[in-house]
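During the no-cost extension, the postdoctoral fellow (Dr. R.K.) reprocessed legacy sequence entries with the updated structure-token encoder. One reprocessed record is reproduced below for audit purposes.
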Amino acid sequence: MSTYSTFQTLPWSIIGSVVVSHLNTNRSDYESNPRLASAIIHCYHAWRSAFMSKTCANLEIKFSLVHPPVYLFPSWPLALTQPGFSDITHISFGSAVQNTRFIECIRQNSKSLRKLKVSDFNKGNAELLLYNSQGEPVVYPRLESIVYRGTRSVGRIVHFPKLQLLEFDSGYPFDDDVLFRGNSDTLEKLSISIDSEFMDIATRYCIFADTTRFARLQSIGEKFDTVTHARTLTPLSDVDAFLSQTMAAATTSSSIARFEFRGKLPGSTFMSAARTYSMFSTIQIIHIADCTLDFADIVTVLQRAPHLRSLNCELSNDAPAIDGKSGTELVNYMYASNGVFGKYFQNLGLHVDAGFRKENVAEIAALLAIACRQFTRCKVGRIYRDELNSEVNKVLEADHYCRYAGLILWFVNG
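Re-encoded structure tokens follow.
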């Protein structure tokens, strides 16, 4: 028996990784090896009838197609809607999905599907997920995770009652609140892309004004594209207001552990939220890489977020100071605060511009080491750890820091 014939008889549990790998390769690979291409598609038909009924419960389908999609094997879309493709739990479609049989594959597995990831759905296809060919609503009772990439897409039907993760990276795919409807008891992770259209939809359907929607939320991530907003002339004040509204909504959850914002975020907007919203009382990770904070802001965040373990932000070029305190007075203040705030704080990630001063960063690291017992890691974009430690050792030469050398060296040697 030839190698290819043997390959064709293997069960999916063995050939799955091989097939998926080749489905994700460049189309030219198939053209250069037509026998392998034939073997792979033959397997799709052979094991579909022989093995699919036994393996579908744990099957994850992944198709990554060229753009625009060129079906080297025209029977693929047809095969997806055959009885063998049932009880699938994970479906991930890469590239554009134009053939309605891909949609039908998703719909016919609506009762078993737990995770769905799609790319470049057009509005019509997104809406087809909600209703079958007879116009009857399709409900996804077990779906926990939806990830949309580059998509755009009504009724008050609850289509996704068990949703735990909702992520859309390049625009909200529907025209109403369908993805946020009826899953307030399950939604745990939210990652959204903010644009003018979504802000309008959120306002129209009171997505974030309804304080009951996010009772179990544990993680919230937001992305704001300044280039897009410059093109659409959306006032930044509207974005600030929307951000504040989302954080206010998240405050209804008593278990928020992570907040992330991708895009330029005014430090004043974030600090106002930190001083206002109780979501910071449980938060452990804050990632705001394009938000500029000074040392006083960082200390305020630690005071407002008693369980914070990690903070990632942009650092201002100002020398560390708090309410006019600097030098010896500031060092003594931080020592007096030892154990008062930052009890769990371990990691500080700093983004700095070309004009930053190493000595300021080193002094900030030393000050935090004095106040925060578990602080052992400070990662600065333009400084290696050994270089930072060298700068911290220079700080120790000053008398007002030397007194607390034990605490600072704990950081240096951590």
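The chain has two domains: 1-50, 57-412. The mean pLDDT is 78. The remaining legacy entries will be reprocessed before the final report is submitted.
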